[in-house]
Amino acid sequence: MIRLPFGNSVYEVKPSKIICLGRNYAEHAKELGHEVPKEPVIFLKPPSALIGPNETIILPKKSKEVHHEVELAVIIGKKGKNIPKEKAMDYVLGYTVFMDITARDLQWEAKRKGLPWTLAKGFDTFAPIGPRIVPKEELDVSDLEIGLKVNGEVRQLSRTSKMIFTIDEIISYVSSIMTLEEGDIIATGTPEGVGALKDGDIVEAWIERIGILKENVSYSTTYR
Ligand code: MG
Question: How far does the centroid of ligand 1 lie from the alpha carbon of residue 4, in Å?
Fold first, then answer.
């Protein structure tokens, strides 16, 4: 069970689903060789992939290339369907830092074969979240520094103002397809600079005024 500080209380992270945006920063779409999308590209990550701060990202045996992606996560505060853009922020509880860990080699293979990406995105420990949830009333997330370091070296550095689709647009779009439940997580996409993680790495993802989400990286010992 993952519990994160939320204002002066504690929040239990228990989403019915994790919705992720692909290609929501133009420079990242470009580095993977994609066009900038005309409407949001979404996929799901299983809640079983979640880990809290200061845990271990496990590199699975099936992949030779596991990538880091730092993202701003939105925590949904109440149930909604077909939410208009103008009302979207009423459905936000708060914000945190998220890593969309990706088995890039398996994702390329799936894309090449025209298969879903679920395998590449869904391994256990591939959804680190934290270190705290900041209530939406306390934070304007429209232009914050977002970054990620591996072993102290900056790999990703951008600003949330470079997101192609804004949070209200994303909530409106996603809720036109699936009902958003209280506790659901929307990960809003990663900026450029994604790269490989290896055994023994220490990865630190941060967003200005939210905090640093720090994890260890290790080869699987259980499943190899
Ligand atoms: Mg991502």
Answer: 22
